[in-house]
Write a structure and sequence with these properties.
By secondary structure, the chain is an alpha/beta fold. It is elongated. The chain folds into two domains: about 130 residues, Rossmann fold (3-Layer(aba) Sandwich), CATH 3.40.50.300; about 70 residues.
Length: about 220
C-alpha cells in the first residue's frame, strides 16, 4: 500500500532541492515502516527526538554529515537548541558552529528530513511549517495482514503459509504492530531450535499476550 507515498518519497530523494516530510498517525501505522526502510539507505542517520541535546544533535550532524535525517517521535523535541538546529538545517541547509579560535562558522549540509510523530499538537508551528505533513490512518485487518506477511517473508524468510498463520493469529489476539510479527517469528524460531510449527507459534503468541503491556501479570 501507499504506493503514491513511496513514489513521492523517491521523487523527493532524487530532487536537487530538499523537501521534508512529517508522517503523522497512531502507533503501529505505516510511518514506522517507512522510517525503517529509509534507514537502509546509505548516508541516512536515525535519531529519536528527546534523546539528544541541542549541541549533541548538532555534533551528530557534523560528525556523520547525513544526506537523510530520520527523526522518530518529533513531538518530543523540547529544547530551543534542538528546534533552532532543525529549523536552520531544513530552511537553509546549514549548521552554525562557534569555536574560540575561529568564531562562528557556517557548515553547508544538504539534508532531507523525514520525521514521524503520533500527534502534532506539541510541535512548534514554525517547525511544522517546514514539512509536507502526511496523515496515516490505522491499518485495517486486511492491510495489517498483508504488511505482516510481507515483512515475515522478505525480512525473516518465513515460509508464506507460516507467515500468514502468524499474522492471522496475532491479529486475532489484538496485536496491531507489524513489528510484533517479527518478534513472534524470532521467538518461535528460537523456541523451536530453528523449526517453526503452529504449536510453537501458538505458545509464543500466548506468552506475548500474557505479558503484553497494560494487561498486568497473570499468575
Amino acid at each position: 500500500g501507499y504506493n503514491d507515498v513511496k513514489e513521492m518519497f523517491l521523487s523527493a530523494l532524487r530532487a536537487k532541492t530538499p523537501v521534508h516530510f512529517l508522517m503523522v498517525g497512531p502507533p503501529a501505522t505505516a510511518k514506522s515502516l517507512f522510517l525503517e526502510e529509509l534507514s537502509r539507505i546509505p548516508g541516512s542517520t536515525f535519531v529519536v527526538a528527546g534523546t539528544t541535546t541541542g549541541p549533541g544533535l548538532r555534533d551528530l550532524l557534523l560528525e556523520q554529515k547525513p544526506h537523510i535525517l530520520l527523526i522518530d517521535e518529533l513531538d518530543k523535541v523540547r529544547s530551543t537548541q534542538d528546534i533552532s538546529v532543525l529549523l536552520t538545517l531544513m530552511e537553509r541547509q546549514v549548521l552554525y558552529v562557534t569555536t574560540v579560535r575561529h568564531g562562528r562558522q557556517v557548515v553547508h549540509l544538504p539534508c532531507r528530513v523525514f520525521a514521524a510523530t503520533n500527534k502534532t499538537e506539541r510541535i512548534p508551528p514554525e517547525l511544522l511549517s517546514r514539512f509536507v505533513v502526511l496523515n496515516f490512518k490505522p491499518y485495517t485487518d486486511g492491510e495489517l495482514k498483508r504488511v505482516m506477511v510481507k515483512v515475515l517473508t522478505e525480512r525473516e524468510y518465513c515460509e508464506a503459509g507460516m507467515a500468514r498463520y502468524i499474522a492471522e493469529k496475532l491479529i486475532a489476539e489484538g496485536f496491531r504492530d507489524p513489528r510484533d510479527a517479527v518478534k513472534a517469528a524470532r521467538l518461535a524460531r528460537a523456541k523451536g531450535g530453528g523449526e517453526v510449527t503452529e504449536e510453537i507459534v501458538n505458545a509464543v503468541i500466548g506468552f506475548m499476550k500474557k505479558y503484553r503491556p497494560g494487561r498486568g501479570f497473570t499468575p
